[in-house]
Design goal:
448 residues; alpha/beta; Aspartate Aminotransferase, domain 1; five-stranded antiparallel sheet; 13 helices; 38% helix
Length: 448
């Protein structure tokens, strides 16, 4: 299928202006040649006449795919009515979206502070936990990512924090209960005993919060063993610590449920969100708090705010997104397609010796690549300096017009929640071919 690019877009000029004037995140700038995106539709990204299957929902955020007409129309209509109101005021999109999120959030999570993304949501959650408890320390996992402002970066555990250290004081990390390769294996009681031991070492009276991603994202796509989050909830209750779940990546249907916390029937005290709340159409995030925390701020000042908190265009997009999830049964589709995706990935694993593990929930799955299945030696070291394997795999997939997020020895397969079976199988076939590269690398040590 040949696509027409708007005559207003000079692709060559965009590429040159980017090279000359734009700093690209997470990259050395010298040899970059970023894809010029000229449009998108559904599960596909357009670059001129080229169509590329977005098999990782870009940054695991375009849950509704690209250019969903209901959301685009909502932004247009809101722009004609009101584009911005001060955060000390209120307006219909902000109030409506806050109510809709509270109606779908687990337990008694009830009031939202809106931000412009997940990083600010995490910053806000840390501040709220400290204000509420009067304590300073925040416990997080080593394999985690929570954003890139100073506080959120400090809370993360992977190598993206290294360049900005030292970070904020008071962050304490513990080891993840990774069923595939951690020292705890599937023994959830050992994993929880480790967390409790860290609590004792740090002094529970000094710990404000324990913050975790329900499913670790690009730092490993790690699904915890059953019982782990119930145990974290019990530890928080025992020691008066607030529980924060960072659902920036997992929220709004990504795992086949509205929020990943539902898989374990756990209710946090605070929950951050972003990405899927409006599919990234306008920057938006937030932190929603439970009734006791909301009540605390009835007569205590909430020392946190942003100029663009609850931006009208972003919230209008959020309202339309949640309506689309509901009316088009998008989350049910994510659960159904997620089952198919996992089955197909496991079948690939049976044929590719470089695949050590396949894991995930819903349309958030990962493939971990190894040199040897018996030893589980990683095909590219996690947190290592090399991204050669990831770059080679990503390039090979893009040559097949399929975009997949690749990092170290991990492929993150997280297509839009609207994906149909035909497109899903297109992505799986491309991964099947790319895994041949990983198999040769595991056998020979070369990527050529």
């Amino acid at each position: 299928m040949t696509l027409r690019t708007s005559s207003a877009i000079d692709v060559a000029r965009v590429a040159q202006d980017t090279k000359d004037h734009v700093l690209i995140s997470w990259m050395a700038q010298g040899s970059l040649a970023p894809l010029v995106v000229t449009g998108g539709e559904g599960c596909w990204i357009h670059s001129g006449d080229r169509r590329i299957l977005d098999f990782s929902s870009t940054l695991v955020n375009t849950n509704l795919g690209h250019q969903h007409p209901k959301v685009v129309r909502a932004i247009q209509e809101q722009a004609a009515t009101l584009t911005y109101a001060a955060p000390s005021f209120t307006d219909a999109p902000r109030a409506t979206l806050a109510r809709m999120i509270a109606e779908r959030a687990p337990g008694d999570l009830t009031k939202t502070l809106f931000t412009t993304g997940g990083t600010e949501a995490v910053e806000s959650a840390i501040k709220i936990a400290r204000l509420y408890t009067g304590r300073q320390k925040v416990m997080t996992q080593y394999r985690s990512f929570h954003g890139q402002t100073q506080g959120a970066m400090s809370a993360g555990g992977d190598n993206r924090r290294w360049a900005n250290e030292p970070g904020i004081p008071g962050i304490v990390r513990f080891l993840n209960p990774d069923p595939y390769r951690s020292i705890f294996g599937n023994d959830v009681q050992k994993a929880l005993a480790h967390v409790e031991e860290v609590i004792w070492y740090e002094g529970p009276e000094h710990i404000a919060a324990i913050m975790c991603e329900p499913i670790v994202g690009a730092s490993g796509l790690i699904v915890p063993p059953e019982g782990f989050f119930q145990g974290i909830r019990a530890l928080c209750d025992r020691y008066g610590i607030v529980m924060i779940l960072d659902e920036v990546m997992t929220g709004f249907g990504r795992t086949g449920k509205w929020f990943a916390a539902e898989h374990w029937d756990v209710v946090p005290d605070l929950m951050t969100f972003a990405k899927g709340v409006n599919s990234g159409y306008v920057p938006l995030g937030g932190v929603i708090v439970d009734e006791p925390i909301a009540k605390h701020f009835q007569d205590h000042v909430l020392w946190q705010g942003l100029t663009y908190s609850g931006h009208a265009l972003a919230c209008a997009a959020g309202v339309a997104t949640i309506e689309a999830y509901r009316d088009e049964r998008v989350i049910e589709n994510a659960a159904r397609m997620g089952d198919l995706l996992m089955a197909e990935l496991r079948e690939l694993a049976s044929r590719h010796p470089s695949v050590g593990d396949v894991r995930g929930k819903g349309l958030m799955c990962g493939i971990e690549l190894v040199k040897d299945r018996e030893t589980k030696e990683a095909l590219e070291r996690w947190n290592g300096p090399s991204q050669q394997l990831a770059t080679t795999l990503r390039t090979a997939l893009m040559k097949q017009d399929v975009y997949v997020m690749c990092r170290w020895n991990l492929l993150v397969i997280a297509p839009p929640l609207i994906i149909a079976e035909d497109d899903l199988r297109t992505g799986i076939r491309a991964i099947d071919e790319a895994l041949g590269i990983a198999d040769r690398y595991a056998a020979t040590g070369t990527l050529s």
